[in-house]
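Data card: per-record layout.
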Amino acid sequence: MFIHNLDPVIINFGILSIRWYSLAYIFGILIGWWYGNKIILKKFDAERAKTDVKIFDELITYIIISIVIGGRVGYVLFYQTNLFFLKPLYILEIWNGGMSFHGGLLGIIISIFFFCKINKISFYYLSDLVSIVAPIGLFFGRIANFINTELIGRPTEFYISVIYPSIDNIPRHPSQLYEAFFEGIVLFIILIFYFFKTKKNNNHGIISGLFLSIYSFFRFFIEFLREPDLHLGLFFNFISMGQLLSVPIFIFGIILITYNGYKKSN
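The structure for this 266-residue chain is written out next.
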């Protein structure tokens, strides 16, 4: 059993503080950016790699903006719908916290789509590249959730448990760490393995489908160990909002795998 007494603030300067959550976003983006460039350099010859690295560098700006906007809009619309109608400008209050993975995901998909249209690039090529490095950001994000004492797990008698004194003295599942392991480390290994096993072919889109379907699969089942949002509870007394949102993403991922796999076989 672990007693959680971690401080979400690293350094406090009074009017300004540095938080683990902010660093998680920064490190997730920087390491994902760096590794994305490494993948490009391994996949193509020097001339093609130089061009694609420049394209990926430009895309990162779109990604950062879409994560913030999509994540915030998704959180408010999916998890704080009533508050949005009562106070529409709440959607701008980023400093109050609240980001949704599914909202950020939709934001990234939209930004990649428009970026590819503007630059006349294959959507699936860039979406695959972003999908490979996305688990890096997910890993750091879930670790930050754990440090912040948010998205806590349900009560458990399992020997791997955490007590959050700021909430109660009940042993709980460290669901954030489960998600960091499966959605971050395990998913990353699966995608990297598939990429290096098939990197000589151009059947783009399958990695994107794998990311969507496997992430949703892990998220759906780990949510059974996570405490439901107090203001939402469980739908049908069984599943959470996160699980509901994961179902269509899982289905879409399977469609991508099937569609792009069919194109390869023909």
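Known properties of this structure: The two ends are 54 Å apart (CA to CA). The first strand starts at residue 2 and ends at 3.

See the next section for split statistics.
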